[in-house]
Design brief:
With 660 residues, this protein is α+β, with helices and mostly antiparallel strands. It has two domains: 469 residues, YVTN repeat-like/Quinoprotein amine dehydrogenase (Methylamine Dehydrogenase, Chain H, 7 Propeller), CATH 2.130.10; 118 residues, IL-4 antagonist (De novo design) like domain (Four Helix Bundle (Hemerythrin (Met), subunit A), Up-down Bundle), CATH 1.20.120. Helix 6 runs antiparallel to helix 7.
């Protein structure tokens, strides 16, 4: 583990962001921070952040600068981390690994990267076993942590004590090492559980781990066959060899009924999941299905099953208004489904997503492409009709960092292995979003035609975390990561960015491709550089003061939007703006204290500015409560507007204190 900065204590933890463990729900079934009641009221409570799988946090995130090292800490060297670190109410960061017997597979860190506790090392399958690597920790409103392994579902207290352990159904195929959840969910009834890779829906009572409803099995489909054409993948002890091929199958959607994380509708409680479908009539093609599942009179029922192409596809994402569900299939078609009926609202072809669709602050749907031959790397779609807002190609960015590869130096038999000497940049993660930025990992390297498989892949020279302008896809800044990512980025209330490192391209290129090229007598610049290390990397703000100022600026933008909409009676837009504004001001108050601790401002300035921010938050809370009543008479709208205006004036005064 590497620590770069002095410790900064989380002054009030994520609870300060929302004020209570009992969130007030005003509309849409979610609290101001965007979580449903049983989820931890933090910035990132589960693998895709919330019950909608939105991958969006409603506050600003820091600037990133390639010329500065913003790594606060790294940990878990030598282990694959596939899913996003989750954040508990006390500020703990939770992440899973899968190195196998003799090692721990659930790890808890504080915000500064100090190891707090780990699960007991695996001695047998009665312990938390290595298949936990595929289950991101889920945190509930009480700070309890839930994680699946191959044969059991576990609940831990925030201090590492085991609350209960419940058995999971055995796999349908006795040769499989298990049938875990690909991350768990919390239902609107307060049940916890998930859907196994075999398609069994299993929900437990949070209090004691007893079954809450009878186990329900989805109709068995025909998944894509296993390819296992990735020599070198997760070699060198990065993952337990006993589960490696099984994890490879579900990660890439092969031989797996369900390879994704369900989403839960915040208002209706409907559960959505993509799964393998039946063979298409006539053609015999592989298909997929999006299921809508309801809990009715203590049992699970299928509300609809809508057709998709090509297997289990991506995890489903629910739109901010709850009207649509987004999912992409294995054939590169992204669809928007009606959340109630399952009917296709729109579809957009030619978008083979590198991960599940992510959402922006305005509901924009983001998708990334990892295909070396792709014509666009990152796309943004209009949620209304699926039209392309913009499509960005980052090869020019790659060319600014790397030279063309001197393929003319290669022996003639080797030259076809590098079909394009120009550097390329490709998406290497799910897209996460904050208030003014989208976040995506990009590999920067060259296209390589793997003669072992006949498949083209990226051969990276470096991997970066890029901050992207959600308006046009331009890169605002970036930080180099220590390995290839292939996972998710979670965003903390303190401005930290937690990056899991899945080391897929890193391990394939280092352990297999490098050996092949060395057999041809090749060395740099034709080899993948460095030894895969994996683990987790956490980045911190360049300046907590700048982060605080950016947060205030965004709140004033939200205030202006609310004041513009109130005269016309658009209470929903005004309410959303005030809810997001008060969440941001909670984070900004902490950023001011962090700036003081880092020596960016003096104590008196910090105290005065923080007081104004806290008072502004109270005013926005009052305005939110007024607007949250629904239809209100004009005098009440005017009172709300006055409170928003008063909050804005206080923020002007805070900016004077914090400014140059």
């Amino acid at each position: 583990m590497r620590l770069r900065t002095v410790s900064i204590v989380l002054l009030t933890s994520a609870l300060a962001l929302v004020g209570s463990r009992c969130p007030q729900l005003l509309d849409g079934g979610v609290s101001d921070i965007g979580q449903t009641p049983f989820y931890a009221q933090t910035s990132w409570a589960s693998t895709h952040r919330d019950s909608r799988n939105s991958d969006f946090v409603p506050f600003v995130a820091p600037e990133v600068d390639a010329d500065a090292d913003q790594t606060r800490w790294t940990a878990l060297d030598g282990a694959v981390t596939l899913l996003a670190p989750a954040i508990g109410p006390e500020g703990n960061r939770y992440i899973t690994t899968g190195r196998g017997p003799g090692t721990s597979h659930l790890h808890a860190f504080d915000a500064d990267g100090n190891l707090l506790w780990e699960s007991a090392p695996q001695q047998s399958l009665d312990d938390l076993d290595s298949q936990a690597v595929g289950s991101s920790p889920l945190v509930d409103k009480n700070g309890h942590v839930y994680v699946s392994d191959g044969n059991q579902f576990w609940s831990f207290r925030s201090d590492g004590r085991v609350r209960w352990v419940a058995p999971l159904p055995p796999p349908n195929d006795p040769l499989d090492p298990g049938a875990p959840f690909i991350s768990a969910i919390l239902t609107n009834e307060g049940y916890v559980g998930g859907i196994t890779t075999d398609g069994k829906v299993v929900l437990f009572r949070r209090q004691n781990g007893k079954l809450a409803v009878p186990i329900f099995e989805l109709p068995q489909g025909v998944p894509p066959p296993s390819t296992n054409e990735r020599p070198g993948l997760w070699a060198g002890g990065l993952m337990d060899p006993a589960i490696l091929r099984f994890v490879e199958d579900w990660f890439f959607g092969d031989e797996t009924q369900v390879a994704n994380t369900p989403s839960v509708h915040p208002e209706t409680g409907r559960i959505y999941i993509t799964a393998a479908g039946p063979l298409a009539a006539g053609s015999g093609d592989i298909t997929g299905l999006l299921y809508g599942l309801d809990i009715v009179k203590g049992a699970i029922e299928i509300a609809f099953a809508s057709s998709m192409g090509g297997g289990s596809g991506t995890s489903p994402t629910i739109s901010p208004d709850g009207a649509q569900v987004y999912a992409a299939d294995n054939l590169g078609v992204l669809r928007a489904f009606d959340a109630e009926t399952g009917a296709v609202v729109w579809s957009q072809a030619g978008i083979p997503l590198a991960g599940s669709p992510g959402l922006g602050a305005d509901g924009t749907v983001f998708g990334g492409n990892s295909d070396p031959g792709a014509t666009s790397t990152l796309v943004a779609l209009d949620p209304a009709d699926g039209s392309v807002k913009w499509a960005q190609d980052y090869d020019a960015f790659a060319a600014s960092l790397l030279p063309a590869l001197p393929v003319f130096l290669l022996p003639p038999p080797v030259q076809p292995l590098f079909p394009n000497p120009q550097p390329i940049a490709r998406v290497n993660s799910v897209v996460s979003s904050s208030a003014r930025k989208a976040w995506v990992a990009l590999t920067v390297g060259y296209e390589f035609l793997n003669p072992l498989t006949g498949i083209a892949l990226s051969q990276p020279r470096l991997t970066v975390l890029a901050a992207v302008d959600p308006a046009d896809g331009s890169i605002l800044g970036y930080q180099e990561l220590r390995d290839t990512q292939e996972g998710l980025i979670s965003i903390g209330p303190d401005g930290t960015l937690q990056v899991s490192l899945g080391v897929i391209l890193g391990s394939i290129n280092f352990f297999a491709i490098n050996s092949l090229l060395q057999d041809f007598g090749l060395g740099p610049p034709f080899l993948y550089p460095g030894v895969p290390v994996g683990g987790v990397q956490t980045l911190e703000p360049l300046s907590f003061l700048d982060l605080a100022i950016d947060g205030i600026d965004w709140v004033q933008e939200l205030d202006a939007a609310a004041l513009a909409e109130l005269p016309g009676g658009d209470l929903e837009t005004a309410l959303t703006a005030t809810r997001r504004g008060r969440v941001q001001l909670g984070a900004t108050a902490d950023s001011i204290e962090h700036a003081k601790a880092a020596g960016e401002i003096d104590a008196a300035t910090a105290r005065a500015a923080r007081r104004k921010v806290v008072r502004a938050k109270r005013l926005l809370t009052s305005a939110r409560n007024l607007l949250g009543r629904g239809a209100v008479p004009p005098p009440v709208e005017k009172v709300a507007a006055r409170k928003i205006g008063a909050a804005d004036a206080l923020l002007d005064e805070a900016l004077v204190l914090l400014g140059p």
